[in-house]
Amino acid sequence: MTGEPDDPGRRPTPGVPVDGRRRRWAARARALGDAARSRTRRFWAGAQPTLRQLWWSEAPATPVTTVDRRFPEPLVAPAQGQVYVFLVRATFTWSSDTARPELFGWYVDYFQPQATQRLRRLAVRCAVEVPPHRPGELLAALTAALAADDPPPWTYARGEVSFACEPDVTVHLDERVRRLLQPYWEQRIALECERDLARRRIEYAQERDRSTPPDPPPPRPAAPIPPDRTRQTRADHPGTPHPRQPHAATPAPTPR
User: Fold this and answer.
1) How many angstroms separate the CA atoms of 145 and 138, rounded?
2) Composition of the chain by helix, strand, coil, percent to 5
3) DSSP string spanning 185-241?
4) Shortest CA distance to 99 belongs to which of 64, 59, 58, 61?
5) Distance between CA 12 and CA 4 in Å, rounded?
6) Spatial separation of the C-alpha atoms in residues 69 and 92, rounded to whole Å
7) Which residues are CB-neighbours of 167 under 8 A, at least 6 positions away?
8) What is the structure's pLDDT at 5?
9) DSSP structure string for 76-110
10) Which of 3, 133, 220, 252 could form a disulfide with 18 if both were Cys (CB 3.0 to 4.6 A apart)?
């Protein structure tokens, strides 16, 4: 039985059977495949040390702390009497070492209203008993409340991302109260300026007195010369010899 050729358009080689050609081609293909696999194994074994050096080794990620500051609108806290208000200005410092830098602003915008409401509750509670012209008392009360009742940093979390918030607070007067207090403070400032001027004048006068040498004292009158008592004695007693002169010898009596 004669086999049909693979390609009908190609004429078989005379004298060579078709099955023999197929077996020869299959043997050649197996030989080429074995040779290719052998070369591939040798190439791969030689290239592995070089490839290990070129492989990408991802180092452990170092946490980076991102910090941002936000300045929201002033908070309004009614003062004593509910007529005037205080303006509470706050600066929120946000920090996180788990948030990605490109998403940091989104998380801050998400947590900012919660922190603002938290501070507003404390400010309203502390300002209800403070007169409207004493912002320092409200600042002291609010600082004490932050330290005792709700100490910072405030923590917020969403999933695996956590944030810390540090509020910094200042208190300002209502504009209506500021206008009422302006004449009083102008007069007080003028009086303090006059007092400082008088004190400086006194200090300058004292410094000038210390630097000026004192006037010399007036000359004292000369003491009177005491009288010569020897001359006075001789004048009163003529026969008294001078103490510095020797006594004259008394002449011996003449013998008779």
Assistant:
1) 10
2) 50, 15, 35
3) HHHHHHHHHHHHHHHHHHHHHHHHHHHSPPPPPPPPPPPPPPP-HHHHHHHH-TTSP
4) 64
5) 9
6) 6
7) 90, 91, 92, 93, 115, 119, 146, 152, 154
8) 47
9) EEE-TTSSSEEEEEEEEEEEESSS-HHHHHHHHHH
10) 3
Q: For tokens 């910094």, what's the residue?
A: 168
Mean predicted confidence (pLDDT) in 35-55: 79
* pTM for the full predicted model: 0.54
Q: Is the dihedral of CA 124, 129, 135, 139 positive or negative?
A: negative
Positive/negative CA dihedral, 167, 118, 120, 69: positive
Reference 129, options 177, 86, 73; nearest CA is 86
- CB of 138 closer than 8 Å to CB of 172: no
Q: 56 versus 32: which is more confidently predicted? A: 32
Residue whose C-alpha is closest to residue 92's, from 109, 77, 76? 109
